Amino acid sequence: MKSIITLSFLFLSLVSVAQVDSSLFVKTKVDTSSPLLNMDAVYNRPFLTMKKVPVSLGGYVEANWQHLGTDGVSDGHQFQMRRMTLFVSSTIGKRLKFLSEIEFENGGKEIAIEFASLDVEFHPLLNLRGGIIMNPIGAFNQNHDGPKWEFIDRPISATQMLPATWSNAGFGLFGKTYRGDWMFGYEFYLSGGFDDSIIDNTQNKTYLPATKANEERFEESASGTPMTTAKIAVRRSKIGELGLSYMGGIYNTFQKDGIILDKERRVHVYAIDYNNTLPKLKTFLTGEWAWINVDVPEAYGQQYGSKQMGGFLDIVQPILKRKMLDWEQASLSVACRLEYVDWNVGTFKETGGNIGDEMWSVVPAISFRPVPQTVFRINYRIMRQKDVLNNDPAKTAGLSIGFSSYF
Fold it and tell me: Which end of the chain is more exposed for a tag (fewer CB within 10 A), N or C?
Protein backbone atom coordinates (compact mmCIF):
# COMPACT_ATOMS: atom_id res chain seq x y z
CA MET A 1 0.00 0.00 0.00
CA LYS A 2 2.86 2.38 0.82
CA SER A 3 4.44 1.74 -2.59
CA ILE A 4 1.11 2.30 -4.40
CA ILE A 5 0.56 5.63 -2.63
CA THR A 6 4.10 6.79 -3.42
CA LEU A 7 3.85 5.84 -7.10
CA SER A 8 0.42 7.48 -7.40
CA PHE A 9 1.74 10.71 -5.91
CA LEU A 10 4.70 10.78 -8.30
CA PHE A 11 2.46 10.05 -11.30
CA LEU A 12 0.07 12.86 -10.43
CA SER A 13 3.00 15.23 -9.88
CA LEU A 14 4.49 14.41 -13.28
CA VAL A 15 1.11 14.80 -15.00
CA SER A 16 0.65 18.19 -13.37
CA VAL A 17 4.11 19.30 -14.46
CA ALA A 18 3.43 18.11 -18.03
CA GLN A 19 0.47 20.53 -18.25
CA VAL A 20 2.63 23.56 -17.46
CA ASP A 21 4.19 25.66 -20.25
CA SER A 22 7.61 24.11 -20.91
CA SER A 23 9.13 27.56 -21.53
CA LEU A 24 8.94 28.13 -17.79
CA PHE A 25 11.53 25.41 -17.17
CA VAL A 26 15.31 25.66 -17.30
CA LYS A 27 17.51 22.58 -17.45
CA THR A 28 20.76 22.85 -15.51
CA LYS A 29 23.65 20.68 -16.67
CA VAL A 30 26.43 18.94 -14.80
CA ASP A 31 29.14 21.47 -13.98
CA THR A 32 32.35 20.69 -15.87
CA SER A 33 33.80 24.20 -15.74
CA SER A 34 35.76 23.71 -12.52
CA PRO A 35 37.43 20.78 -10.78
CA LEU A 36 35.25 18.96 -8.30
CA LEU A 37 35.66 16.34 -5.58
CA ASN A 38 33.65 13.15 -5.15
CA MET A 39 31.91 14.82 -2.22
CA ASP A 40 30.36 17.31 -4.69
CA ALA A 41 28.58 14.53 -6.61
CA VAL A 42 25.43 14.81 -4.49
CA TYR A 43 24.63 18.25 -5.98
CA ASN A 44 26.55 18.00 -9.28
CA ARG A 45 23.65 16.53 -11.28
CA PRO A 46 21.42 17.88 -14.04
CA PHE A 47 18.21 19.37 -12.62
CA LEU A 48 15.05 20.81 -14.13
CA THR A 49 14.16 24.10 -12.47
CA MET A 50 11.05 26.25 -12.84
CA LYS A 51 11.44 30.01 -12.91
CA LYS A 52 10.73 31.65 -9.55
CA VAL A 53 10.08 28.24 -7.95
CA PRO A 54 12.76 27.11 -5.42
CA VAL A 55 12.33 23.36 -6.15
CA SER A 56 14.42 21.48 -8.75
CA LEU A 57 13.75 17.99 -10.13
CA GLY A 58 15.98 15.40 -11.74
CA GLY A 59 16.84 11.74 -11.87
CA TYR A 60 18.27 8.88 -13.87
CA VAL A 61 17.23 5.48 -15.19
CA GLU A 62 19.09 2.21 -15.92
CA ALA A 63 17.95 -0.81 -17.96
CA ASN A 64 19.76 -3.69 -19.66
CA TRP A 65 19.73 -7.15 -21.23
CA GLN A 66 22.06 -9.79 -19.79
CA HIS A 67 23.13 -13.36 -20.52
CA LEU A 68 25.53 -14.86 -17.95
CA GLY A 69 26.58 -18.42 -17.25
CA THR A 70 28.53 -20.13 -14.48
CA ASP A 71 30.29 -23.43 -15.25
CA GLY A 72 28.05 -23.91 -18.26
CA VAL A 73 24.80 -23.25 -16.38
CA SER A 74 22.81 -20.15 -17.33
CA ASP A 75 19.47 -18.55 -16.52
CA GLY A 76 19.23 -17.53 -20.18
CA HIS A 77 18.20 -14.14 -21.48
CA GLN A 78 17.37 -11.65 -18.75
CA PHE A 79 15.80 -8.23 -19.33
CA GLN A 80 16.27 -6.00 -16.32
CA MET A 81 15.00 -2.61 -15.24
CA ARG A 82 17.69 -2.04 -12.65
CA ARG A 83 16.59 1.24 -11.16
CA MET A 84 14.98 4.63 -11.56
CA THR A 85 16.09 7.38 -9.21
CA LEU A 86 14.44 10.73 -8.55
CA PHE A 87 16.13 13.85 -7.16
CA VAL A 88 14.26 16.70 -5.49
CA SER A 89 16.30 19.73 -4.46
CA SER A 90 15.32 23.04 -2.91
CA THR A 91 17.04 26.21 -1.83
CA ILE A 92 14.86 26.89 1.19
CA GLY A 93 16.47 30.16 2.11
CA LYS A 94 19.80 31.87 2.38
CA ARG A 95 22.43 29.24 3.35
CA LEU A 96 19.76 26.53 3.57
CA LYS A 97 19.57 23.68 1.03
CA PHE A 98 17.64 20.44 0.91
CA LEU A 99 18.19 17.45 -1.38
CA SER A 100 16.52 14.06 -1.52
CA GLU A 101 17.29 10.97 -3.61
CA ILE A 102 14.59 8.30 -3.91
CA GLU A 103 15.47 5.06 -5.69
CA PHE A 104 13.07 2.55 -7.25
CA GLU A 105 14.76 -0.79 -7.95
CA ASN A 106 13.67 -3.94 -9.77
CA GLY A 107 10.62 -2.39 -11.39
CA GLY A 108 9.44 -0.71 -8.18
CA LYS A 109 9.73 -3.82 -6.02
CA GLU A 110 12.12 -1.95 -3.74
CA ILE A 111 11.73 1.74 -2.86
CA ALA A 112 14.33 3.46 -0.71
CA ILE A 113 15.25 6.97 0.39
CA GLU A 114 19.00 6.99 -0.20
CA PHE A 115 19.59 10.61 0.69
CA ALA A 116 17.42 13.28 2.33
CA SER A 117 19.34 15.94 4.14
CA LEU A 118 19.26 19.59 5.08
CA ASP A 119 22.52 21.50 4.58
CA VAL A 120 23.25 24.64 6.59
CA GLU A 121 26.10 26.70 5.14
CA PHE A 122 28.14 28.70 7.65
CA HIS A 123 31.42 28.93 5.74
CA PRO A 124 32.98 27.02 2.79
CA LEU A 125 34.99 25.08 5.37
CA LEU A 126 32.17 24.63 7.88
CA ASN A 127 28.75 23.30 6.88
CA LEU A 128 26.22 21.24 8.80
CA ARG A 129 24.36 18.31 7.22
CA GLY A 130 21.60 16.28 8.86
CA GLY A 131 18.94 13.75 7.86
CA ILE A 132 19.54 10.59 5.86
CA ILE A 133 23.17 10.94 4.81
CA MET A 134 25.31 8.95 2.38
CA ASN A 135 28.24 7.63 4.42
CA PRO A 136 31.39 8.69 2.48
CA ILE A 137 33.39 5.43 2.56
CA GLY A 138 35.51 5.16 -0.57
CA ALA A 139 34.42 7.05 -3.69
CA PHE A 140 31.71 4.94 -5.31
CA ASN A 141 29.25 5.27 -2.42
CA GLN A 142 29.10 9.03 -2.98
CA ASN A 143 29.44 9.09 -6.76
CA HIS A 144 27.34 6.10 -7.86
CA ASP A 145 24.94 7.54 -10.49
CA GLY A 146 24.66 5.10 -13.39
CA PRO A 147 25.14 7.62 -16.25
CA LYS A 148 28.60 8.49 -14.91
CA TRP A 149 29.93 4.95 -15.45
CA GLU A 150 30.81 2.88 -18.52
CA PHE A 151 29.82 -0.35 -16.78
CA ILE A 152 26.36 -1.83 -16.29
CA ASP A 153 27.09 -3.67 -13.03
CA ARG A 154 28.28 -1.76 -10.01
CA PRO A 155 31.70 -2.81 -8.65
CA ILE A 156 31.54 -6.10 -6.75
CA SER A 157 33.75 -4.74 -3.96
CA ALA A 158 31.30 -1.85 -3.52
CA THR A 159 28.14 -4.01 -3.53
CA GLN A 160 29.13 -7.39 -2.05
CA MET A 161 31.90 -6.37 0.34
CA LEU A 162 31.06 -2.74 1.12
CA PRO A 163 27.35 -1.91 1.11
CA ALA A 164 26.88 0.30 -1.99
CA THR A 165 24.60 3.33 -1.64
CA TRP A 166 25.03 2.91 2.12
CA SER A 167 23.08 5.58 3.95
CA ASN A 168 21.92 6.12 7.53
CA ALA A 169 20.16 8.69 9.66
CA GLY A 170 22.71 11.05 11.16
CA PHE A 171 24.41 14.42 11.05
CA GLY A 172 27.84 15.95 10.73
CA LEU A 173 30.13 18.56 9.23
CA PHE A 174 31.72 19.02 5.81
CA GLY A 175 33.72 21.64 3.99
CA LYS A 176 36.01 22.45 1.08
CA THR A 177 38.69 25.00 0.22
CA TYR A 178 41.04 25.98 -2.64
CA ARG A 179 44.62 27.19 -2.72
CA GLY A 180 46.20 27.60 -6.14
CA ASP A 181 46.08 24.26 -7.96
CA TRP A 182 45.19 22.45 -4.74
CA MET A 183 41.75 21.56 -3.45
CA PHE A 184 40.96 20.08 -0.04
CA GLY A 185 37.71 18.66 1.33
CA TYR A 186 36.57 16.82 4.43
CA GLU A 187 33.44 15.14 5.84
CA PHE A 188 32.69 13.91 9.35
CA TYR A 189 29.42 12.26 10.38
CA LEU A 190 27.86 10.45 13.32
CA SER A 191 25.06 8.13 12.31
CA GLY A 192 23.31 4.83 12.81
CA GLY A 193 25.28 1.87 11.60
CA PHE A 194 25.68 -1.87 11.28
CA ASP A 195 23.95 -4.61 13.25
CA ASP A 196 24.37 -8.32 14.07
CA SER A 197 23.29 -9.33 10.56
CA ILE A 198 26.79 -8.68 9.22
CA ILE A 199 27.65 -12.09 10.71
CA ASP A 200 24.17 -13.54 11.32
CA ASN A 201 22.88 -13.75 7.73
CA THR A 202 21.86 -16.10 4.93
CA GLN A 203 25.26 -15.69 3.24
CA ASN A 204 26.88 -17.72 6.05
CA LYS A 205 29.88 -15.42 6.08
CA THR A 206 30.89 -11.96 7.20
CA TYR A 207 28.82 -9.77 4.90
CA LEU A 208 28.41 -6.05 5.59
CA PRO A 209 25.71 -5.44 2.91
CA ALA A 210 23.29 -7.65 4.90
CA THR A 211 22.58 -4.65 7.15
CA LYS A 212 20.89 -2.81 4.27
CA ALA A 213 17.88 -5.13 4.65
CA ASN A 214 17.25 -3.73 8.14
CA GLU A 215 14.68 -0.98 7.61
CA GLU A 216 14.70 -0.19 11.34
CA ARG A 217 18.22 1.25 11.11
CA PHE A 218 16.77 4.67 10.23
CA GLU A 219 14.92 4.75 13.56
CA GLU A 220 16.94 2.59 15.94
CA SER A 221 20.62 1.69 16.29
CA ALA A 222 21.27 -1.97 17.15
CA SER A 223 24.15 -1.12 19.47
CA GLY A 224 22.71 2.13 20.81
CA THR A 225 26.00 3.85 19.92
CA PRO A 226 26.85 6.07 16.93
CA MET A 227 28.90 4.95 13.96
CA THR A 228 31.67 7.33 12.88
CA THR A 229 32.42 8.08 9.24
CA ALA A 230 35.22 10.45 8.25
CA LYS A 231 36.88 11.31 4.97
CA ILE A 232 39.52 13.71 3.68
CA ALA A 233 40.21 14.32 0.01
CA VAL A 234 42.94 16.25 -1.82
CA ARG A 235 42.98 17.17 -5.50
CA ARG A 236 45.66 18.82 -7.60
CA SER A 237 45.25 19.63 -11.27
CA LYS A 238 47.00 17.09 -13.57
CA ILE A 239 47.62 14.78 -10.59
CA GLY A 240 44.06 13.91 -9.63
CA GLU A 241 42.05 13.33 -6.48
CA LEU A 242 43.13 11.15 -3.57
CA GLY A 243 40.67 10.25 -0.82
CA LEU A 244 41.18 8.54 2.54
CA SER A 245 38.16 7.43 4.55
CA TYR A 246 37.20 5.53 7.68
CA MET A 247 33.92 4.09 8.93
CA GLY A 248 33.41 2.12 12.11
CA GLY A 249 31.79 1.51 15.45
CA ILE A 250 30.07 -1.10 17.60
CA TYR A 251 27.82 -3.33 15.50
CA ASN A 252 26.31 -5.87 17.90
CA THR A 253 23.41 -5.66 20.36
CA PHE A 254 25.66 -6.01 23.40
CA GLN A 255 23.00 -5.00 25.89
CA LYS A 256 19.22 -4.87 26.14
CA ASP A 257 17.12 -3.28 28.85
CA GLY A 258 20.28 -2.75 30.88
CA ILE A 259 21.30 -6.42 30.72
CA ILE A 260 24.74 -7.15 29.22
CA LEU A 261 24.40 -9.81 26.50
CA ASP A 262 27.89 -9.76 24.96
CA LYS A 263 31.02 -7.70 24.87
CA GLU A 264 31.15 -4.68 22.58
CA ARG A 265 32.16 -5.91 19.11
CA ARG A 266 33.40 -3.44 16.55
CA VAL A 267 33.73 -3.17 12.79
CA HIS A 268 36.38 -0.97 11.18
CA VAL A 269 36.48 -0.06 7.48
CA TYR A 270 39.37 1.80 5.84
CA ALA A 271 39.37 2.90 2.19
CA ILE A 272 41.54 4.76 -0.30
CA ASP A 273 40.27 6.08 -3.63
CA TYR A 274 41.82 7.86 -6.58
CA ASN A 275 40.70 9.36 -9.88
CA ASN A 276 42.38 11.37 -12.60
CA THR A 277 42.21 12.14 -16.30
CA LEU A 278 45.58 11.85 -18.05
CA PRO A 279 46.16 15.17 -19.87
CA LYS A 280 47.31 14.05 -23.34
CA LEU A 281 45.44 10.80 -23.94
CA LYS A 282 42.38 11.89 -21.92
CA THR A 283 42.44 8.44 -20.28
CA PHE A 284 40.22 8.43 -17.22
CA LEU A 285 41.32 6.36 -14.22
CA THR A 286 39.24 5.73 -11.13
CA GLY A 287 39.46 3.14 -8.42
CA GLU A 288 39.26 2.34 -4.75
CA TRP A 289 40.54 -0.25 -2.31
CA ALA A 290 39.07 -1.08 1.10
CA TRP A 291 40.08 -3.08 4.16
CA ILE A 292 37.54 -4.40 6.69
CA ASN A 293 38.18 -5.66 10.22
CA VAL A 294 35.34 -7.29 12.19
CA ASP A 295 35.40 -8.66 15.73
CA VAL A 296 33.78 -12.04 14.99
CA PRO A 297 32.88 -14.35 17.92
CA GLU A 298 34.95 -17.54 17.89
CA ALA A 299 31.76 -19.61 18.00
CA TYR A 300 30.99 -18.58 14.44
CA GLY A 301 33.91 -20.57 13.00
CA GLN A 302 36.61 -19.73 10.50
CA GLN A 303 34.26 -19.39 7.54
CA TYR A 304 33.31 -15.97 8.97
CA GLY A 305 36.20 -13.71 8.05
CA SER A 306 37.50 -11.20 10.55
CA LYS A 307 39.46 -9.49 7.77
CA GLN A 308 38.34 -8.62 4.25
CA MET A 309 39.82 -6.57 1.43
CA GLY A 310 39.07 -5.69 -2.16
CA GLY A 311 38.60 -3.00 -4.73
CA PHE A 312 38.41 -2.08 -8.38
CA LEU A 313 40.16 -0.06 -11.08
CA ASP A 314 38.37 1.44 -14.09
CA ILE A 315 40.30 2.51 -17.18
CA VAL A 316 38.31 4.49 -19.74
CA GLN A 317 39.85 5.60 -23.06
CA PRO A 318 37.89 7.90 -25.40
CA ILE A 319 38.63 6.99 -29.02
CA LEU A 320 36.23 9.24 -30.90
CA LYS A 321 34.54 12.51 -30.02
CA ARG A 322 32.71 14.45 -32.71
CA LYS A 323 29.32 15.22 -34.19
CA MET A 324 27.44 12.01 -35.02
CA LEU A 325 24.04 12.19 -36.69
CA ASP A 326 22.43 15.16 -34.90
CA TRP A 327 24.44 14.78 -31.69
CA GLU A 328 27.02 17.55 -31.38
CA GLN A 329 28.93 16.09 -28.40
CA ALA A 330 28.80 12.36 -29.18
CA SER A 331 31.70 10.18 -28.01
CA LEU A 332 32.83 6.57 -28.26
CA SER A 333 35.07 4.96 -25.63
CA VAL A 334 36.63 1.64 -24.76
CA ALA A 335 37.05 0.67 -21.12
CA CYS A 336 38.10 -2.10 -18.77
CA ARG A 337 37.31 -2.80 -15.13
CA LEU A 338 39.62 -4.92 -12.95
CA GLU A 339 38.15 -6.26 -9.70
CA TYR A 340 39.27 -8.34 -6.75
CA VAL A 341 37.60 -9.24 -3.43
CA ASP A 342 38.77 -11.51 -0.61
CA TRP A 343 35.93 -12.02 1.89
CA ASN A 344 38.14 -14.01 4.27
CA VAL A 345 41.77 -12.94 4.54
CA GLY A 346 43.85 -15.43 6.50
CA THR A 347 44.76 -19.10 6.94
CA PHE A 348 43.12 -22.10 8.56
CA LYS A 349 44.29 -22.64 12.14
CA GLU A 350 44.52 -26.42 11.72
CA THR A 351 46.46 -26.65 8.44
CA GLY A 352 47.95 -23.23 7.82
CA GLY A 353 46.43 -23.31 4.34
CA ASN A 354 44.96 -20.22 2.77
CA ILE A 355 41.25 -19.60 3.35
CA GLY A 356 39.44 -19.11 0.04
CA ASP A 357 36.20 -17.18 -0.48
CA GLU A 358 37.76 -14.81 -3.00
CA MET A 359 36.99 -13.53 -6.48
CA TRP A 360 38.61 -11.71 -9.40
CA SER A 361 36.91 -10.27 -12.45
CA VAL A 362 37.78 -8.51 -15.72
CA VAL A 363 35.12 -6.54 -17.59
CA PRO A 364 36.02 -5.06 -21.00
CA ALA A 365 33.49 -2.54 -22.29
CA ILE A 366 32.48 -0.31 -25.18
CA SER A 367 30.38 2.77 -24.49
CA PHE A 368 28.69 5.35 -26.68
CA ARG A 369 27.46 8.71 -25.41
CA PRO A 370 25.19 10.68 -27.78
CA VAL A 371 25.22 13.40 -25.10
CA PRO A 372 27.30 13.48 -21.89
CA GLN A 373 24.26 12.65 -19.72
CA THR A 374 23.34 9.42 -21.59
CA VAL A 375 25.42 6.28 -22.11
CA PHE A 376 24.84 3.07 -24.08
CA ARG A 377 27.07 0.22 -22.83
CA ILE A 378 28.28 -3.20 -23.96
CA ASN A 379 30.09 -5.21 -21.25
CA TYR A 380 31.57 -8.69 -21.20
CA ARG A 381 32.35 -10.21 -17.80
CA ILE A 382 35.02 -12.83 -17.08
CA MET A 383 34.97 -13.90 -13.43
CA ARG A 384 36.57 -16.60 -11.25
CA GLN A 385 35.37 -17.24 -7.70
CA LYS A 386 36.71 -19.71 -5.13
CA ASP A 387 34.77 -21.09 -2.18
CA VAL A 388 36.04 -21.00 1.40
CA LEU A 389 37.88 -24.35 0.98
CA ASN A 390 39.83 -23.12 -2.05
CA ASN A 391 38.36 -25.63 -4.47
CA ASP A 392 38.63 -25.07 -8.22
CA PRO A 393 37.04 -21.69 -8.98
CA ALA A 394 33.58 -21.30 -10.43
CA LYS A 395 33.92 -19.80 -13.92
CA THR A 396 31.46 -17.09 -14.90
CA ALA A 397 31.25 -15.31 -18.25
CA GLY A 398 28.61 -13.40 -20.13
CA LEU A 399 27.45 -10.37 -22.06
CA SER A 400 25.45 -7.35 -20.89
CA ILE A 401 24.00 -4.58 -23.07
CA GLY A 402 22.15 -1.61 -21.64
CA PHE A 403 21.80 2.13 -21.16
CA SER A 404 21.67 4.71 -18.41
CA SER A 405 20.54 8.30 -18.67
CA TYR A 406 19.80 11.36 -16.60
CA PHE A 407 16.46 12.96 -17.32
Answer: N
